[in-house]
Specification:
- InterPro entries: 4Fe4S_Fe-S-bd, 4Fe4S_Fe_S_CS, NapF, PSI_iron-sulfur_center.
- This protein is α+β, with helices and mostly antiparallel strands and 159 residues long.
- It has two domains: 61 residues, Alpha-Beta Plaits, CATH 3.30.70.20; 65 residues, 2-Layer Sandwich (Alpha-Beta Plaits), CATH 3.30.70.20.
- It contains six helices and six strands, in the order H-H-H-E-E-H-E-H-E-E-H-E.
- The strands form three sheets. It has a two-stranded antiparallel sheet. A two-stranded antiparallel sheet has the order 3-6.
- Strand 1 and strand 2 form a beta hairpin.
- The longest helix is centred in the N-terminal third of the chain and has 8 residues.
- The two termini are 28 Å apart.
């Protein structure tokens, strides 16, 4: 087991609790204490977006695909890390940066096309390219928009 507090002390890195680890995590601050890094959640993930992150702990990589909220990672985990499926999966939301092609006056709507809850819509603009508008209350944090973005302008975090 990695003593995260000591590792952080010597590397002078702070732990990013806003990083998207896994859906339905009960306590982000205790995740590294409770997770044994067995890898069962990685194998169970139907979209294979759970990867080994810092220290071998699982985390979600939306550049690979999206979370379908299948709950398989929680079902297979032998540790008491996850809350029930009836709870919200996470507070994660998408964020669109200024490097978005639409802000560079290049037509692109790939994120909106991949957004099933339709949280990303495009506002038409006279004489220019339609601009993405993100409705955070509709965003479920699935990350479908991340892997389809050709300019890597979208991220998902708990911030």
């Amino acid at each position: 087991m990695v003593d995260v507090s000591r590792r952080v002390f010597f590397t002078r890195k702070s732990i990013n609790y806003n990083m998207v680890r896994l859906p339905w995590i009960k306590e982000a601050q205790r995740f590294t204490e409770l997770c044994t890094r067995c890898g069962q959640c990685e194998q169970a993930c139907e979209t294979q977006i759970i990867v080994k992150g810092d220290g071998g702990f699982p985390q979600v990589d939306f550049s690979l695909d999206e979370c379908t909220f299948c709950y398989k990672c929680a079902e297979i985990c032998p540790e008491p890390i996850f809350s029930s499926e009836q709870q919200p999966a996470w507070d994660a939301k998408a964020q669109i940066s200024d490097t978005c092609l639409a802000t560079q006056n290049i037509e692109c709507r790939s994120c909106g096309d991949s957004c099933e809850p339709m949280a990303i819509r495009f506002q038409l603009r006279a004489g220019g390219v339609a601009q993405p508008q993100l409705e955070l209350e509709s965003c479920n944090g699935c990350g479908a928009c991340v892997s389809t973005c050709p300019s890597n302008s979208i991220s998902v975090s708990n911030e």
